[in-house]
Q: What sequence folds into this?
């Protein structure tokens, strides 16, 4: 067996690898590292900006909205995407088509047509309220009631569970069927097998989804901006929206940058916590 | 390896948190640092970016005017950038802060305070008189575009907010358009049986709810809400009166409550909402220069202008006017002469004026107004609104009143009152203090 040689247009020299990653590095420096530095410089350019943020009721209100949103959406999304992934992992004809159908909402995202559809569904005389009336439940002020407005944003994002579902589907495929056969032989039912085999073996995927979804939920901006404008009574104004408003609507650059860094710190703490809990779970397992 | 990959993945996912604010740094440098490009007295071949906001009527008219320009000056290509009002000021704010704004912009009145408090944020138009003809403008009109004593912008039209009603609905209800505040309030009861609202006031970007309440108090007290130099003229009690008046309109069924309005329309603008198009909301308070978008969604001739309201003694004071919009040139433009030539075309050219019609209100330029008058084009709702305003003893709006932060204060106050979160006295006190502290803050900053 002869030794294999790999050729590429930039050669196989000492710096080939470096050259190959240069486009990514250039992009990272130009569009991430430099803006990151400028953002930090902007946040400390005026003295007392962080104090102003930490004394502002708007900041705490937005942070509370964001935390509530993260705490409701992320677990829900994990449960729903795992449940759908379990259903779609069954061997059936046309399963590829079903998987595609379930992934479509994630492709659509919260674009304008989806938002228009959502507005149509949840206005006072929309189909959702009409359905509720049909089953003798009173109409809900989805947009106007601060107790419910966040739920339509959560529903919109929950509908986009495709990415998490794909990660779960892939992990489910990697669980050897022999485990289930053995369990069945030992008299283990499907529900027990799910908790004793599937769930522990999905630990890494759950962990990855949890982290990715938490980060994305903390940074939420599009859905509340397009659906509710942050209202009513700022009950859906996430930190992402606060940053946008302060930056572009009110021209408070320093304030917006400071809030961005505080959000970064909060996300980092949340991820460290998840990481630690995840590791402890792993050791116990 | 697996762990490193995970760390890299997480870091990459976290970083976008900063991208939103990353473009607000010091590069590229703004004109005040690199030096403004001086006019060279020559017209060169170039491309110019021109931005504006508006409804479809304005977009179509402006694109038609650009076609006229392209025939006259094929060497200067105009690249149009346009959209609706919602989100527009945020977009322009991002452009101005990153010094990537278009060469010529349609700007809002308060942007002079926001973006050019010292007059250096936009080009000094007094340097461009070789190409810009100001002879059609009065000194008072020109003064609207000055900031820090420097002529930064030219007023396109002067406008005021007036009432426009769905004539078919009013006819069906057997109702007359109101002349006094009392008439307006009594309409609420008359229309309520049919579940129709005679008027709409909003707390969206227009903020008409607070605007009408201010007019009511200005007429009643003779005091200006905010002076031209940014001092709050209302007392705390005046603010309470304004909020009480708003609540009376809501409670009397004249307008929808914030809750009902939000329930029915979500975050949709009134002129796009089924309630307005189908007639369950039969009136709107709108700038004469922007009423076209409401007119377009109803059958022709259905929307009619109503009178400016007065008190029971016929006092029509307190109504406000302002430059509906202005044209400004970027301080960073590479082509000041060419941009000035284009701006002059927009303001004074006969053919351009005909193409625009009254989609930006009745032109402030006497040349443009004459061009429309000669061709019998000074018609429509904008003209009617303008004629009525001319007969009133109006107040010029302070640009400070329109600042986005101030609008947030007003809208939050109205929302609190509407949702019964607090009584009007408490909200008035909070609003009074918020306005005063903010006005003090921006004056120190500027």
A:
């Amino acid at each position: 067996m002869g030794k294999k040689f790999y050729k590429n247009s930039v050669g196989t020299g000492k710096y080939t690898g470096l050259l190959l990653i240069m486009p990514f590095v250039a992009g990272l420096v130009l569009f991430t590292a430099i803006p990151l530095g400028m953002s930090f410089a902007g946040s400390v350019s005026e003295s007392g900006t962080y104090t102003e943020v930490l004394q502002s009721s708007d900041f705490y209100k937005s942070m509370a909205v964001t935390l509530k949103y993260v705490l409701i959406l992320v677990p829900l999304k994990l449960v729903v995407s795992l449940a759908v992934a379990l259903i779609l992992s069954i061997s059936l004809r046309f399963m590829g088509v079903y998987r595609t159908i379930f992934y479509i909402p994630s492709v659509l995202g919260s674009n304008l047509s989806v938002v228009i559809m959502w507005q149509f569904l949840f206005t006072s005389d929309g189909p959702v309220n009409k359905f509720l009336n049909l089953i003798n439940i009173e109409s809900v002020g989805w947009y106007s009631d601060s107790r419910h407005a966040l739920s339509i944003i959560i529903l919109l994002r929950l509908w986009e569970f495709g990415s998490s579902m794909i990660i779960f589907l892939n992990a489910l495929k990697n669980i050897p069927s022999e485990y289930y056969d053995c369990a069945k032989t030992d008299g283990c039912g499907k529900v027990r097998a799910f908790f004793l085999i599937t769930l522990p073996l999905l630990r890494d995927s759950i962990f990855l989804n949890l982290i990715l979804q938490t980060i994305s939920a903390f940074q939420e901006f599009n859905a509340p901006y397009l659906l509710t404008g942050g209202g009513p009574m700022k009950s859906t104004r996430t930190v992402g929206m606060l940053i946008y408003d302060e930056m572009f609507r009110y021209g408070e650059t320093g304030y917006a940058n400071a809030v961005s860094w505080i959000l970064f710190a909060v996300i980092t703490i949340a991820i460290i916590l998840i990481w630690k809990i995840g590791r402890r779970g792993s050791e116990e397992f | 390896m697996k762990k490193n990959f995970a760390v890299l993945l997480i870091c990459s996912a976290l970083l976008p948190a900063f991208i939103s604010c990353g473009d607000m740094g010091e590069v590229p440098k703004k004109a005040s640092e690199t030096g403004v490009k001086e006019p060279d007295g020559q017209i060169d071949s170039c491309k110019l970016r021109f931005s504006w906001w508006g409804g479809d009527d304005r977009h179509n008219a402006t694109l038609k005017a650009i076609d006229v320009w392209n025939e006259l000056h094929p060497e200067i290509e105009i690249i149009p950038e346009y959209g609706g009002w919602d989100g527009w000021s945020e977009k322009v704010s991002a452009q101005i802060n990153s010094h990537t704004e278009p060469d010529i912009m349609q700007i809002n009145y308060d942007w002079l305070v926001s973006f050019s408090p010292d007059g250096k944020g936009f080009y000094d138009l007094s340097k461009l008189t070789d190409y810009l003809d100001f002879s059609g403008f009065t000194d008072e009109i020109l003064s609207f575009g000055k900031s820090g004593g420097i002529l930064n912008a030219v007023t396109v039209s002067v406008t005021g907010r007036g009432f426009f009603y769905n004539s078919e609905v009013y006819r069906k209800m057997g109702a007359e358009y109101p002349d006094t505040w009392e008439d307006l309030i009594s309409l609420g009861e008359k229309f309520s049986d049919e579940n129709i609202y005679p008027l709409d006031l909003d707390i969206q970007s227009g903020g008409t709810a607070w605007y009408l309440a201010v007019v009511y108090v200005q007429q009643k007290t003779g005091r200006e809400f905010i002076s031209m130099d940014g001092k709050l003229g209302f007392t705390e009690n005046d603010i309470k009166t304004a909020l009480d008046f708003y609540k009376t309109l809501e409670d009397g069924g004249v307008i929808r409550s914030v809750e009902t309005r939000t329930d029915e329309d979500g975050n949709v603008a009134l002129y796009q909402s089924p309630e307005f198009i189908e007639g369950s909301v039969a009136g709107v308070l709108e700038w004469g220069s922007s009423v076209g978008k409401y007119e377009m969604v109803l059958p022709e001739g259905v929307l009619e202008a109503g009178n400016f309201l007065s008190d029971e003694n016929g006092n029509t004071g307190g109504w406000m006017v302002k430059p509906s919009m202005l044209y400004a040139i970027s301080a960073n433009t590479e082509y000041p002469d060419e941009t000035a030539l284009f701006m002059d075309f927009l303001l004074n050219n006969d053919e351009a004026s005909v193409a625009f019609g009254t989609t930006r209100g009745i032109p402030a330029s006497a040349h443009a107004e004459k061009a429309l008058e000669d061709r019998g084009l000074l018609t429509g709702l904008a003209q009617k609104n303008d004629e009525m305003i001319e007969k009133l003893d109006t107040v010029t709006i302070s640009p400070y009143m329109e600042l986005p932060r101030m609008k947030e204060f007003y809208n939050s106050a109205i929302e609190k009152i509407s949702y019964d979160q607090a009584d009007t006295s408490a909200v008035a006190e909070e609003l009074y203090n918020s306005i005063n502290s903010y006005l003090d803050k921006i004056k120190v900053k500027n």
About this structure: The first helix of chain A runs from residue 16 to 44. Chain A is about 75% helix and 0% strand. Chain A touches chain B through 52 residues (CB under 8 Å).
